[in-house]
Predict the structure.
Amino acid sequence: MAATKEQVLAALAKIPAPDGGSLTQAKVLSDIVVSDGKIFFSMTVDAAAVKSWEPVRKRAEDAVRALTGVQSAMVALTAERKAGAAAPTRPAAAAPPRHAQHGQQGQQGVPGVDAIIAVASGKGGVGKSTTAVNLALGLRDLGLKVGMLDSDIYGPSLPKLLAIKDKPETIGGNRLKPIERYGLSVMSIGFLIDEETPMIWRGPMVMSAITQMLRDVEWGKLDIMVVDMPPGTGDAQLTMAQQVPLKGAVIVSTPQDLALIDARRGVSMFKRVNVPVLGVVENMSYFLCPSCGTRSDIFGHGGAQKEAERLGVPFLGEVPLHMTIREKSDAGLPVVATEPDGPHAKIYREIAAKVRDQLTGGPSAGRSAPKIVIEA
Ligand SMILES: Nc1ncnc2c1ncn2[C@@H]1O[C@H](COP(=O)(O)OP(=O)(O)OP(=O)(O)O)[C@@H](O)[C@H]1O
Ligand SMILES: [Mg+2]
């Protein structure tokens, strides 16, 4: 029998808040999401009192986990600054000083993971998740051990793009095992919530969930972790760019947007938090006729590369708008895995090689544009 919301609340009522009152009376609890034996909720507390709340969070998590029928519990502490209060001590809520060296600000690497990179876009629907998956597979084909984290909490796409229906196993009650697919270790918030579950996640809670997906998942040894970011450059994305210890970011754009403001916003967001932009991928760059193979440069050609140069970031390559990419992607059969000898897989592998070179300073690094140096 699965635990109910009422049982969770009853367990939480027995836990004292720092002021001695009951946790359920403290007005800090979010909605409690109960899904398939998995429990999630957040506690939004005053930033100045975060330290005294951490043991309460831990007790709450343990108490919920101990309930019959509970497989796993995830309790996130989120700090909210009261108007007029002092700056929060939690890095999640504060922009880093302009000259901060990236990697400070309380960011810890994920043990065993050599490099974490983000795949981001200035706006939604440009093919970011499709690119992220095929890029990850391209990196895999270079002999790297690759993980993928779907940090798009509002619209997780990895369960669909990788046709994953299983739920991750828990290890020792409080750690999750990533799901293995096509040689990638994959974690998505989408594995833990049903599609029908209302998206109650609010901005600050998103970050705690991401932090937990980074740290409470048994990633093992990875050469590289590819993070599929939520679209846009709002607060949630900025916070994420600050909090996840990123080695670099890949910006996906369609040609018509490149000339516009969105991609530029993406680039400047990462620059602002001192994350090197590894380059821009132009997706749906040209139309490749599925029947005759004729290429049509619907949006003109070469604009993206020029724009990338203007932005001072490397150009990683162009991916055509093609039915096969769409069909395969939406069916959970990404082209790099399922048509490894096809023309699209080749393009993604070339992009992957450039990304790797940008990270390691390998052969193609800095060829198309000077490598971004962390600005002091
Ligand atoms: N190169 C391509 N050719 C054809 N279809 C594509 C291509 N890239 C992506 N698509 C399709 O476009 C749609 C949007 O792609 P995707 O979900 O990857 O975008 P996204 O930027 O991650 O979107 P969101 O902002 O919603 O997260 C999907 O149906 C996908 O299959
Ligand atoms: Mg997406």
Observations:
- The longest strand covers residues 277-288.
- The two ends are 57 Å apart (CA to CA).
- Residues 82-106, 367-376 have pLDDT under 50 and may be disordered.
- DSSP finds twelve helices and 14 strands in the chain.
